[in-house]
Predict the 3D structure of the following.
Amino acid sequence: QVQLVESGGGLVQAGGSLRLSCAASGLPFSFCIMGWFRQAPGGKEREFVAAINWSSGSTYYADSVKGRFTISRDNAKNTVYLQMNSLKPEDTAVYYCAARAPFHTMGVMEGDYAHWGQGTQVTVSS
């Protein structure tokens, strides 16, 4: 059974930092693409934030977070991280960790990912 468990969300002032974690189990993650998505309040669609190829370490970011967020992984802990710096109020959202099935290429669409965590709330105050 695939499990993705996010943690690390919270309330932070604009300009601050948070690090989200996603503890993963149940897949050969060394062959997977792992992604972070977010859904802002008000019924907005879930949007892509960042992705990492677990095997190669290559990364890809949405333009809105490039230069501020960093995705990384710890093989020993089977955990993916999202370091978020210089946070803005518009970063306020529920952040979700997602896993794409093994042996696929980098994906930026919600439908590319088969497995999802429960989400963690990030609130950035102005």
User: Anything to note?
Assistant: The mean pLDDT is 95. The two ends are 40 Å apart (CA to CA). Residues 36 and 97 are 5 Å apart (CA to CA). The first strand starts at residue 3 and ends at 7.
